[in-house]
Design a protein that fits this description.
heterodimer; A: mainly alpha; two-stranded antiparallel ribbon; 15 helices; 73% helix; B: ABC transporter involved in vitamin B12 uptake, BtuC; 71% helix; 0% strand; globular; Branched-chain amino acid ABC transporter permease (chain A); transmembrane helix (chain A); transmembrane (chain A); LivM-like (chain A)
Amino acid sequence: MFYREAGDFKVSYRDDSQTFPIKFDRYRYYVVLAVAFGIIPFIINDYWANALLLPFLIYAIAAIGLNILVGYCGQVSLGTGGFMAVGAYACYKLMTAFPDVSMFIHVLLAGGITAIVGVLFGLPSLRIKGFYLAVATLAAQFFLVWLFNRVPWFYNYSASGQINAPERDVFGIIITGPNAPAWATYLFCLIFLTLCAILARNLTRGTTGRTWMAIRDMDIAAEIIGVNPLKAKLTAFAVSSFFVGIAGALFFAVYLGAVEVGEVFGIQKSFLVLFMVIIGGLGSIFGSFAGAAFLVLLPVVLKVVGVDVLGWPTDIVAHLQLVIVGALIVMFLILEPHGLAQLWRVAKEKLRLWPFPH
Amino acid sequence: MSEQLVFAMEVILNGLMAGVLYALVALGFVLIYKASGIFNYAQGVMALFAAMTLVGIMNGQVPFAHVINATFGTHVYNFGWTIPALLAILLTMAVMVVLAWAVQQFVMRHLVGQEPIILFMATIGLAYFLEGVADLMWGSEIKTLDVGLPQGINLWLDEVTFNIFGYGFFIDNLDIVATVIAALLVGALVAFSQYTKQGRAMRAVADDHQAALSVGISLNFIWIMVWSVAGFVALVAGIMWGTKSGVQFSLSLIALKALPVLMLGGFTSIPGAIVGGLIIGVGEKLFEFAIGPMVGGATENWFAYVLALIFLVFRPQGLFGEKIIERV
């Protein structure tokens, strides 16, 4: 009834090619933005920020990054944790070396450095495909974590081997360190997420995104019709690592504040982000959000239900959580291999015809 | 003979032994990959699950004791008996067969025809699930596993090498046993797939699913069988690793160590898994011995992966893998 193209006349090419061509979609997008920027910062408190909102925002950035590589370009990567570590350590080195520069620039530069590292580890993708590539990216994961653990220069020779985020501000508002207010950290991450999402959405709609998808669907055929696989694959690795690096920098500097690399950016993190992408939906920006929200919420909900409501011991709940997450993943793959994004698409198709489905 | 060279020889020998253990895990991967094209990430957790079940059965633990006690307020922990190792191994094997059936019935059957990446993700989900179930069933504390395998330094070898080189090699008895068992296992698997009816059917399925189906081979049965055999290999690997370093969570991480072994050897080749395991075992021990002290040690964490990565750039299908032919 209200979700359809009919009656929404476009009078210029600009209008016709906008990101959300359907009016209802567009207004929904503005409302979400208005709530996220205008309402949540005023009602947020420390618990909500640290337990749900910050991890969601940061994982969403990482999931968008990985989705570009896996979902749009078809190159499976298990090195996300390692690339997040690059972002975190780059951010740390920049923060301590140039204390006066704005955090915005540090985080962006950290993303850029990660992009360069990502391209380096993406080079083998020109020769290796499929599973072999997935396992090859494990080399990045283990090598990078080892590097940050063993070379003291990266953690500024601190005795514990940890990195701790010093207090830094943006326009006089403290963003990192224990004294940062919840709304400031939230807004800081939200700005990055919004920029990343807009960038990703428009990249995947344009020439670059189409060459990625051509490579994903059949790389040899794409090559024959004139897509340069070297350029397509390496740009995918660069853009993906850029986002993942930003996520890593935010995860360390804004969310955790102190990081021990093997624990925080281990192989488990790579799998977690990959799960978000798969459960959310491969090749969908909305799916990245949905997957991140789902996997951030699930442990919190299980903990609240298991420990607080039913009163079970925490270790049983922790094990039960593994069982439930595992079972859910398998169930999802069986029932809806295209993820939450597909449910959303189906819902939209239904809405378009509602209330007269024939 | 110089001292360094003798040390290096000892390192190589130890590396060979470690390689055999990697190869054992890798074997389980190859079996399932060949027969169904599924890359089974859960292989390592299966080894953990098998080892935990074995310990639990041997000690007469009550399954899910922790959960039962928490729910009903009871205090049951043990049946109060112990079961001899051999019988316990047989019982564990029965559990692994049931597990294989359940995996086929509830997971893999519904995923036939999906893309490989989806199947791979499903096995990761399975790994999480199994790990949780194993912890709930038998408790998550580190357990010792002793099925009566010899352990400790091999004195005879120590003495012989001392007489020859003037320096006794330290070789663990358990590693020697593992090597023998691995050799027997590979022999048995090859014989099984070459000379038995079921083995031939398995190879037929590996070759071409549809053709196998059309000559009357039951895919369902073959896949349950393959998962059972992989479960058996996981049990053997679990016993070896469990005896060596205790039954604990890190056991499931050896699955990751098996990945570069597979890449080196090729996903589809049983001899490849063995040779790959040996190369990785020797390579990482030698690298740690020669280069490790210069760069801060613990290079074993990544050496295998980087070696496999560099190797693959030159030969994408691995040492013994089938040549990858691509068509549009």
